[in-house]
Design goal:
The chain is about 50% helix and about 20% strand. About 5% of the residues have low confidence. It is globular, with a radius of gyration of 15 Å. Helix 3 crosses helix 5. By secondary structure, it is an alpha/beta fold. The chain has a five-stranded parallel beta sheet with strand order 3-2-1-4-5, sandwiched between helices.
Length: about 140
């Protein structure tokens, strides 16, 4: 079996991403791997938006992401797992694949379905994207 030294888990606040976080923490506890906890801020699809509204939405999304990551780091550290937050912006699938390559992770852990927008039902989920595009990484999809 390949040694696991760094694990990337994507979280979005959904129940299934919480389970993915728990699984990733457990893997890191057993292997001594470092945990990278990633949340991707995806701009909501809005046709017309006033600049001040856009700034308010971005601030709210950032505050949500900060709380989500802080809670995840607390859970990991409580279990004795060394963890680092990654706050990314853009489309979740491509951003998680890019982060996996940039940080040289050995394993990507994601939930099977998250809190994505309607477009993800049409184009495919984040986990589907990762399976198809992160072919050089091991991937664990949690249900």
């Amino acid at each position: 079996m390949t040694h696991i030294s760094r694990v990337l888990v994507g979280i979005d606040g959904s129940e299934v991403s919480e389970r993915a976080l728990e699984v990733a923490i457990e893997i890191c506890k057993k292997t001594g791997a470092e945990l990278l906890v990633a949340h991707v801020i995806e701009k909501p699809p809005v046709l017309t938006i006033v600049r001040t509204q856009e700034e308010l939405i971005e601030r709210a999304l950032k505050e949500y992401a900060d709380r989500l990551l802080a809670r995840a780091l607390f859970k990991a550290e409580r279990e004795g797992v060394k963890a680092k937050p990654l706050l990314l912006k853009g489309k979740p699938g491509p951003q998680l694949c890019e982060a996996a390559n940039k940080y040289g992770v050995d394993l990507i852990v994601v939930g099977s379905r998250g809190l994505g927008t309607i477009s993800k039902f049409i184009v495919g989920s984040v986990s589907d994207f990762i399976v198809r595009h992160c072919t050089n990484r091991s991937i664990l999809i949690v249900r």
